[in-house]
Design a protein that fits this description.
The protein is α+β, with helices and mostly antiparallel strands. The chain has helices at 3-22, 36-41, 152-155, 207-226, and strands at 27-32, 46-52, 55-65, 67-72, 75-80, 95-102, 107-116, 131-137, 146-151, 160-167, 172-179, 184-193. It has a six-stranded antiparallel beta sheet with strand order 2-3-6-11-8-9. It has a four-stranded antiparallel beta sheet with strand order 1-12-7-10. Strand 2 (46-52) and strand 3 form a beta hairpin. It starts with a helix and ends with a helix.
Length: 227
Amino acid sequence: MPATRTNLLIIAFLVIASTQLGVASATLLDLEFEGAAGAQLDGLTSAVDLPVPGDPTLLWSAEAFTGTFNQTSSGFGINAFASGDDTDALDVLESALFSMSTTTAVGVKLINLEFDRVTSSPTGSPPAPDEGLVEFFKAGEVTAHESHSFTNATLGSFNRLTLDKVMLPGESMKISHVAGNGFGLEFVRLDVGAEYYNPPGGAVPEPAAAMLLLLGCVGLLGIRRRR
């Protein structure tokens, strides 16, 4: 078989392989705060390196501000140290901080967050529609480099906030009450895959990108052989 035809067959094989690798390993997982994830945090002020239900190689940490995490039959939130609190919601001065880490070469993309009891009727003191804030902090940051506010109007009928954000190493997410009577946290949907992996010190090429680099090397080899 001529060398040129051989090179073309090799390139065709690698293109097919790169396509398969490019779509391979993503896995959708839910941190269900009204289920297993909430049970892990129930009664705690903070927790470090808990295994994500459904994937023990993925670890998560959480911290509650001004109270303890609390899971009840009607929802999940923070039970404040002071009296007169809605014990299964994030309300006045309450917030929760979350971060992720892995024991393997995979990364995490936050697809969306779902809340409950986010109402449009003015409540609280002073009266206002329910409003929350999601912020992202890199390691050592005091001020968030990215933030998303939400209300009943912006979340829509499913009370769902779509983010599609890759969590970088050392990055954390903070969910805070801003106004109104407060809201509960239902789940965080995660997309876990090697294509999101970005270790400290620099990014690792995605599988498809690595294959394209290999294709270039094969092409150069073919040119040299024809010469």
